[in-house]
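For anyone still unconvinced, we reproduce a single protein record, the chain in one-letter code, the fold tokenised, and leave readers to judge:
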Amino acid sequence: MEDRSKLYSLGLAFLPILVLIGLLVLNVIFFGDNTLGGSNQIALLVSAGIVGLIAHKKGIDWLDIKAGITKSIDTAMPAMLILLLIGSLAGTWMISGVIPTLIYYGLDVLNPNIFLFASVVVTAIVAVSTGSSWSTVATIGVALMGIGMALGIDEGIVAGAVISGAYFGDKISPLSDTTNLAPAMAGTDLFTHIKYMMITTVPSIIIALILFLIIGFNHEFANIDQNIIDVKTAIDHSFVISPWLFLIPVLLFGVIMLKVPPLPALMFGTIIGAVAAVIFQPDLIREIGGYDNYWESSYVAIMKSMFGDVKIETESAALADLFHSSGMEGMLNTIWLITAAMSFGGALEASGMLKRITNAIISKVKSTFSLVASTVGTCIFFNLTTSDQYIAIVVPGKMYADIYKEKGLMPEVLSRTLEDSGTVTSVLIPWNTCGATQSAVLGVSVWSFAPYAFFNIISPFMTLLIVGLNYKIRRIAGSDKKNINNNK
């Protein structure tokens, strides 16, 4: 296949990206928190169109660009199906009382001052156990959002704590797909990768925990006892609260730990939530279903919770948004965004513009520090442009594997850098599949929680600090002295 990257100057290859950045800035100015409602999708599609026009002028057939777009969207299809099932799971877990029960008992055991700290710890434990940040955020994360709301903590801060813990746990879990993918791309084994990653990951999460403790102990919790009483009373009036409902998340996490693939695992979680709703919430089922016959109401209520809007009225105005589930329908804007983002990324790659840009980055690598810094920058760049964390791990992994060997560096140095920059920064970008998904699930804009996702922000800087200090940088035995000392 011809090397299409040679068709473009660096400025021309960057042009669609500059247009995209300009449009995204205008969207923030004019649409504020509602940029995911359609304006960002149009910006991505317009930018993809500009890629197509430039490529056409350079003699590239439109069918080749379309094939690249189709291939790119195909890679995101599993994520979009998972997103739909997360919507249905959230719906059945809401009407079954699972999420209200988690909030109800959580208010009894979580001290307000250490709530954010505890949120990070709890989500980290669940994510390590399941290997999935997405499942953790969609279940325990949603419940923690409700508790935080009752405690009067800003939703962006709570979401930042949930994201920090979930991505830390996902990152060090041997069950995680990205944690397996990174060492595979770099050429090392899983447990060597996880062990080496602790050098940067542990300091990052410790700093994040300290920051959340500082926020917690400096937050004024006015009338907190009365707020908790009001919220618990409102939940009690709308749902049947029972410790037996804890079995639902326990069963789901058990299935995930057995390495059942995400799609059937989430479908299982949705179904057991639906069964629990029929058993535990008869009054709510009748109210939502609207039929005199209980089984007819059950069918209608469950279907509604899985595909559409279900708003459960409570005596607490603060819980109105939390107990509003949109099912699969609520995920359609996010899927639209992912489709548009993958169209742009696919067009960039198929045209050769992406390769032109990455070649320019690689040519500037002169030292160990600049190599790691370039890897970090490339991973973030791919998260921004291709909108997919898997691409942000796979492509830089392939790009840099040989260069790391040439520099005398062990492959785990590369695999750790891929995770520290590719995995964790994806959720900080509104049009990335991860950012868009977590925003939709938690009901909080990326712009609101990103400043408080401390672990995700700190991680890429930590990897740069460690390499800058030349601390435990593993090198290939017998690599020449020039490469060993080349860390300026």
Notes: The two ends are 38 Å apart (CA to CA). The beta strands are 310-311, 324-325.
